Amino acid sequence: MLIKKWYVWLVFVFLPLLAWCLVSEGTQTSPQPEDCALSPYVDYDPAPVFTRWQWIPAKAWDPARISGDNSILVWSDGKKRVAANEATLLIDGNWQTLAPVLSSLLEKENFKLQSTSMPIVNLENDWGQVLLSHRPEIANRLAQQFIIPGLQQAAQNGDITTEEVVRKTELAISQHQLWGVWRDKKRELEVELQKDTPLIIARKTYKTGNIKRTTYMKIMDARSVFGKPKIALTLTTCDIVPNPEYSIKKAAENSKSRLADFKLFGSSIQKLNRNFTHQLVPDESIKPILDLLKENNLTSELTSTAMAWIKSTPLPEKTPEHEPQETMPLGSVSVETVSLNEILPDTDDSRELKIYKELPNGNALFATTRYDRKQQSNVAELYITEPGNPRQVTQLWQGENLFRLVLVHQGTKAWFEAASRQWFEVDILNRRITAMTTPQAETDTYSAPSSSWFSDIHDEPIAFHSDYSDEGKGCLVFQRMDPRLLTTENVILRTCRNQYASGNSIRPVLISTPGYFWLEDSNGLVKLNARTGRAESSYSVPFRASRNIRTHTIDLANDNTTQHTPPPLGSSEAHWIALHYQIPFPPLNSLNEYAIGTHFIDTLSGKWRFSAELKNADSIDATARSAHGRFYAQAGCQKPAGTGTKIDIWEVASAKKIASLQRPKYCGLAGMAFSWQGNILILAYSNKWVRVRLPDGMHDVARKSAIPVQAQE
Question: Which SUPFAM superfamilies does this one have (predicted)?
Answer without folding.
Answer: YVTN repeat-like/Quinoprotein amine dehydrogenase
